[in-house]
Amino acid sequence: MSTDTTAPAQEIRKGLAGVVVDYTAVSKVNPETNSLLYRGYPVQELAANCTFEEVAYLLWHGELPDEQQLAEFETRERSLRRLDERVKRVIDELPLTAHPMDVVRTAVSVIGASDPDAADASPASNLDKSIRLFAQLPSIVAYDQRRRRGQHLVEPRDDLGYSANFLFMTFDELPSEVVVEAFDVSMTLYAEHSFNASTFTARVITSTMSDLYSAVVGGIGALKGALHGGANEAVMHIFDEIGTADKAEAWLEQALSEKRKIMGFGHRVYKNGDSRVPTMKASLDILVEHFDRPDLLALYTALDDAMQSRKAIQPNLDYPSGPAYHLIGYDTEMFTPLFVAARVTGWTAHIMEQAASNALIRPLSAYNGVEERHIG
Ligand code: ACO
After folding, report:
1. pTM beyond cutoff 0.90
2. ipTM
3. Given strand 27-30, what is the order of strands in its sheet?
């Protein structure tokens, strides 16, 4: 093995841990104060006071909409919700063995390939594309959930807000207001988180002057992994594995002895707790009460308690959101696509920011392969 002297080993930060790559005005994560700001606003305040549509507008425009701006934005978003026949046909062609993240990734690719303006990276065109994806991702996710259950497609309703319509298209009925609110809160909390792996992927793709759809498709690919968005599904699989609260401690002991990562715990940036968890946990509590599932809350608490006394590693947003989506009625494999529907707002805000002040993202590597050699 050799070491390239042009890049000393001590400069290598595995996983880019702690490396500041660029500026962003979209959001600020401060692990010291355990805070997360979208365009200056604490995410908890946005979740409590704004709809997800307002948050999407804020991420893209930098300011919350006034009444008229919101009305115009809502009218536009509602008019774009219907899926093209081509997108439906392609989804229908995909086998049910395909993971729903693969379906979402493919559907976004089809939307991009069908857009004659796909290559137009002007700010106005990129904003148009962002609103279209924001409007259509719920239709894709809802349709995929339904076809997996052998149910027919439910067309969107333009008299409903984003979250109410999303749930209506999924379940063919309007859930109660508390459920819609809890879901809306989860969308706001998942919307944006600075240079996380999927957002960084989207920015890398944008930096090559590729198109917005390609960058979003790349983001979806990065989000699918269990160390990132895939963790919300994995939490529910863990709950299924454990069964009941009384078995949580023994299960954890066994899992840690096998050196397993406990999904829904730990974070690259937050080491003293994820700032989004208390807000999502409050929504989970409301859902537990609404659906009368104290057993699920007991399991949630038992595993968290066991994890704290054994490893002192705090839960991340995926820990409360997984069981929340389960209570709302989604199949476990649909959880990460729900994350996509939310995060597309943050991804596209970053894509537009990257495009506006671009530099090709191209880091260096330190070679540690065999020394130079020659044939013969
Ligand atoms: N379960 C068990 N041990 C853990 C966990 C966990 N969830 N998280 C961290 N650790 C341990 C590691 O084993 C390591 O221990 P060691 O020093 O004895 O080897 C130490 O804590 C540091 O962990 P790293 O993995 O090096 O920390 P990193 O910052 O790279 O990891 C990550 C962050 C990937 C999120 C990690 O905590 C993890 O794998 N968590 C589970 C997956 C998950 O929930 N991902 C969701 C992220 S948040 C989101 O996408 C909304």
Report:
1. yes
2. 0.96
3. 27-30, 35-38, 41-42
